[in-house]
């Protein structure tokens, strides 16, 4: 298919006799965000490395930007940018020097204005001339991503771009990704966070023990995961009784005086639920929304918790 930025079929990779990728297939449409979700050791970085021509596959076909990664390495490299799991920033250089180096390597002209533009965009202008070793983790991550953007690659690989970032930096990173997508860039990202995939991705694939156990939009994936619900706690058994009669789909816990009400967790349905309780003069003492996390996805998709959790 011509409109695919990335097309992977039958991809296999083993380290020694340990199969890490056991035949995976997926396609990423141009201008979209694709998230590869999986626990530690699932094979996410291995996949990125193969797609980004940094590692050879054992079998299968991988086309990136219309070129075969095995035979057209140079063409693929000129179309992509990669932000690895571990920052590629040179600690001894300043932010500006790191970017300048990248601009010179990629022969981007005029280098100085491209560098200034990126520093501005990533809010790094003020610290541009400080050695990168003095940057915080979040700043380093931003600089790393800025370096990836030198030369405006059409396809960008981000390997766990927000692991270790605080919530604010995570949001900044999400905004940057959204900005890139708005410009038509294709993004392939890996993450351990369902929420991140949910926020950013057009399509999500879940990798488990070398295979894709699910692929689809966030909505499609969530439909496979029972679990989003509202938890209401009441002041006494009478309120609980009355509320349970009002909400026949709910599961009650008499000991805890709680009701678990299945919900999509969206503000409209939450408001409707609260309005209904209000109408019947039933105030709940506690109200919380529970959404499934990655472990719930794994539990639902594979019938067991993720390997990492089992190992603990
Ligand atoms: N060079 C290597 N030699 C041998 N085994 C390796 C090598 N690189 C990775 N592995 C193994 O392959 C599996 C997948 O590793 P990979 O780094 O792709 O996982 P990941 O999904 O990126 O994990 P994480 O979330 O921890 O980054 C792991 O079991 C890892 O130990
Ligand atoms: Mg990894």
UniProtKB/TrEMBL annotation:
Pfam families: ABC_tran. It is a peripheral membrane protein. It is found in: Cell membrane. It comes from the Bacteria. InterPro entries: AAA+_ATPase, ABC_transporter-like_ATP-bd, ABC_transporter-like_CS, ABC_transporter_ATP-binding, DrrA, P-loop_NTPase. GO terms for cellular component: plasma membrane. GO terms for biological process: daunorubicin transport; doxorubicin transport; response to antibiotic. Its EC number is 7.6.2.2. Keywords: Antibiotic resistance, ATP-binding, Cell membrane, Membrane, Nucleotide-binding, Translocase, Transport. It is an enzyme of class 7 (translocase). GO terms for molecular function: ABC-type xenobiotic transporter activity; ATP binding; ATP hydrolysis activity. Residues 6-234 form the ABC transporter domain. Belongs to the ABC transporter superfamily. Drug exporter-1 (DrugE1) (TC 3.A.1.105) family. This is ABC-type xenobiotic transporter. The lineage of its organism: Bacteria, Bacillati, Actinomycetota, Actinomycetes, Kitasatosporales.
């Amino acid at each position: 298919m011509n409109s695919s930025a990335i097309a992977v079929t039958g991809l296999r990779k083993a380290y020694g006799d340990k199969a890490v990728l056991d035949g995976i297939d997926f396609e990423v449409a141009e201008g979209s965000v694709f998230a590869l979700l999986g626990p530690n050791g699932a094979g996410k970085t291995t996949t990125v490395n193969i797609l980004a021509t940094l590692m050879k596959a054992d079998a299968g076909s991988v086309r990136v930007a219309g070129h075969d990664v095995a035979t057209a390495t140079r063409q693929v490299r000129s179309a992509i940018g990669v932000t690895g799991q571990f920052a590629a920033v040179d600690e001894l250089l300043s932010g500006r020097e790191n970017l300048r180096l990248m601009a010179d390597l990629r022969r981007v002209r005029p280098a100085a204005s491209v560098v200034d533009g990126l520093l501005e965009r990533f809010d790094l202008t003020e610290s541009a001339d400080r050695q990168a070793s003095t940057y915080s983790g979040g700043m380093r991550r931003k600089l790393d991503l800025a370096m990836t953007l030198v030369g405006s690659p059409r396809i960008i690989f981000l390997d766990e771009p927000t692991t270790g970032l605080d919530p604010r930096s995570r949001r900044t990173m999400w905004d940057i990704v959204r900005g890139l997508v708005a410009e038509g860039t294709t993004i392939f990202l890996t993450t351990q966070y369902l929420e991140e995939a949910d926020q950013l991705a057009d399509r999500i694939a879940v990798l488990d023990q070398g295979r894709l156990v699910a692929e689809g939009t966030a909505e499609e994936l969530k439909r496979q995961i029972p679990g989003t619900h509202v938890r209401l706690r009441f002041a006494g058994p009478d309120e609980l009784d009355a509320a349970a009669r009002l909400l026949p789909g709910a599961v009650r816990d008499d000991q805890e005086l709680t009701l678990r009400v299945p919900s999509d967790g969206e503000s409209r349905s939450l408001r409707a639920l609260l309005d209904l309780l209000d109408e019947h003069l039933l105030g709940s003492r506690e109200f919380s929304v529970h959404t499934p996390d990655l472990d719930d996805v794994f539990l639902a998709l594979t019938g067991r918790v993720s390997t990492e959790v089992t190992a603990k």
